Amino acid sequence: MHAVLWRLTACALMLAAASIAQAADMIGNCEMSGKKGDMAISAPVKAGLLTVAVSLPAPMWWNGEAPESIKDGFEFCLAANVAWHAGFDKMQVVNVDWAPLLSGQVKAFDLALSEVAISDDRRKTVDFSPPYFRTDLGVLTKKDAVVDAKSIKTMRVGVQQGTSAAAFAASTLKPKSVSTFAELGDLFAALRSGQIDAAVTDFMISAAEVGIESAALSIAGRYHTAEGFGAVYPKGSANAATLDQIFKSLEAEGTEAALARKYLWGVSGVVPESIAYFDP
Question: Which residue in 94, 119, 241, 250 has its CB near the most CB atoms, within 10 A?
Fold first, then answer.
């Protein structure tokens, strides 16, 4: 009897140890890949953790309204895996405004993941990682709107300030009118209220909104840009080279693709192949 109890106790202890080990390989709700600290950074902004900036809200990319409530999402889990490889089992998420981040005014962070398209103009004020996601521009409209490549040029188009969509609307699309909004939330609110007829923004961001309000919004079309999203580093970051290696490793091992399938396309319900390309 004692031998049986000992074996049961030993088994329970092993299961508990396995559970603890599994929990140790998690940050939030995200499973970690690879070995912790295999590409460690030596100069984080705050000792013992990775400080990650984002401009919220960003549903599917960061699932939650406030930094302390977010436990998963594509960019959250990508940042968590970066933290793991960099030698940390925790990270601090800070919510920052979009324009100050890209103008280099925000300093106290190790990297920012906020669906930022890499561009030469932005490289003047911040540095970038290799691209971790490639996308197009989407045309987000109300569900009952009839929009095509020709009619959009006669419409009131909205864009977010300082984005590639804003540059595209001004230099290439040239619709009847363009309204610029400081934050994505303001852009989408203007579409819902009828202040604008279409919102041109990143295709995946458009898909995220459709995932939230599929009964009210739809994607009328998209424009081919083949732009890439990159992590933002403070200009001249001492950690840039090591963080670049981590992003390349996560792409090579398939972590980025797996996270995209789980948190982006699988949640939004949008089938990219079903959305037609518009000729600008």
Answer: 250
- pLDDT tens digit string along 73-86? 999 999 999 999 99
- How wide is the angle at C-alpha 159 spanned by C-alphas 152 and 208, nearest 5°? 95
Q: Around Cβ 266, how many Cβ atoms within 10 Å?
A: 11
Give the model confidence (pLDDT) of 35-57 as tens digits: 999 999 989 999 999 999 999 99
Residues 182, 184, 185, 188, CA torsion sign: positive
Distance CA 24, CA 169 (A): 47
Sign of the alpha-carbon dihedral angle for 210, 211, 214, 220:
positive
What residues make up the domain containing 62?
A: 29-133+229-268
217 and 233 fall within a common domain: no
